[in-house]
């Protein structure tokens, strides 16, 4: 078995070169390219070239928010674990996940809804600009859309990339029509890794 | 947009039903089915039906190890975050990741190798049965194969599902011929989410 001889610090660069080669004749929008390629890098799945959709203001709004000390709120601790803390610290931004909070579990049980939906309610209390990154629970996006409509939260960006089979496709279409800036992976695919990769691609545009 | 009305506690069950429906005429091996379906559930990617490969002893060895208080060692904190802690606690098993340890970073810099490779060296010092779950770094699998050949570690199971473009395919083939029990996603695809899903599918066979 022949291994390609690549120094540790060059593995990502070499990966990105391979991705670029395999994109062939596809020309990506310049501002979106680093985000789309990082998602392919994290998934080895070129479907995202087709499925990632950006509202026109998404990247500008997200970068402005990160520069203003935004809080990224994820719907899983996996996604939180995957967001680059060094980059966040350089920007004075942070990442939070409320999924394991005792009050979230209690409220979810009481209301008969998912903990992820309750996390979106808790996100309304966060001060300063917020970026919502949903990589798992479509119920989070559905509840978030209601909270946006009620004027209770106005995220600078919604990263809508839950994965799965029940209401996942629909939840993404719903959030795309909510009027807030979004980056969405249409269809069933996505995940905590994809959510974290999009956060990191945005962070790396400012701090790396 | 019509949402399917599914209670929070039934979302996973409904997802598994949809996956089973969409498998159509494919009949999965009974002992492997829950693992393969959980990986599809976490990725929405049916490619894993083809790409997941199991050594004949993999599941039996893994379940015995988990019952004997195994330590699962992951190559990312994302994978660690995704492993079900309640299930692990019921079994008296645990999960560790050494990627952020200061000594790992120092050794990697000194040796000019990846931190993930050094984590495998550190895994040799863990007492009791170990399950190695690699969802990110092919360099971890390559180093692990060397350590196995040198008799420095004998994992009860290697979950080999790194994702990416540089030496990923090759590292999986290498670990499949190392002589230890394995569950591998052949090809480029995998990830921390897939690694965690396989760990959880194994845990849920014993404790849920």
UniProtKB/TrEMBL annotation, chains A, B:
GO terms for molecular function: precorrin-8X methylmutase activity. Pathway: Cofactor biosynthesis; adenosylcobalamin biosynthesis. Keywords: Cobalamin biosynthesis, Isomerase. GO terms for biological process: cobalamin biosynthetic process. Pfam families: CbiC. InterPro entries: Cbl_synth_CobH/CbiC (IPR003722), CobH/CbiC_sf (IPR036588). Residues 10-204 form the Cobalamin biosynthesis precorrin-8X methylmutase CobH/CbiC domain. The keyword Isomerase applies. PANTHER family: COBALT-PRECORRIN-8 METHYLMUTASE. Belongs to the CobH/CbiC family. This is Precorrin-8X methylmutase.
């Amino acid at each position: 078995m022949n291994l390609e001889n690549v120094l540790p610090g060059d593995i990502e660069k070499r990966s990105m070169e391979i991705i670029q080669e395999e994109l062939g004749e596809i020309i990506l929008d310049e501002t979106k390219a680093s985000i789309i390629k990082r998602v392919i890098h994290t998934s080895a799945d070129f479907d995202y070239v087709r499925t990632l959709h950006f509202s026109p203001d998404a990247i500008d709004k997200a970068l402005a928010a990160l520069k203003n000390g935004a809080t990224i709120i994820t719907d899983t601790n996996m996604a939180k674990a995957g967001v680059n803390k060094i980059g966040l610290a350089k920007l004075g931004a942070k990442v939070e996940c409320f999924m394991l909070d005792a009050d979230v579990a209690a409220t979810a049980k009481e209301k008969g809804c998912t903990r992820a939906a309750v996390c979106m309610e808790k996100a309304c209390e966060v001060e300063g600009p917020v970026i919502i990154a949903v990589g798992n629970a479509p119920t989070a996006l559905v509840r978030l859309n209601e909270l946006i409509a009620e004027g209770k939260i106005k995220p600078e960006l919604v990263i809508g990339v839950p994965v799965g089979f029940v209401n996942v496709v629909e939840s993404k279409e719903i959030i795309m029509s909510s009027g807030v800036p979004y980056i969405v992976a249409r269809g069933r695919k996505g995940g905590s890794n994809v959510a974290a990769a999009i956060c990191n691609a945005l962070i790396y545009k400012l701090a790396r």
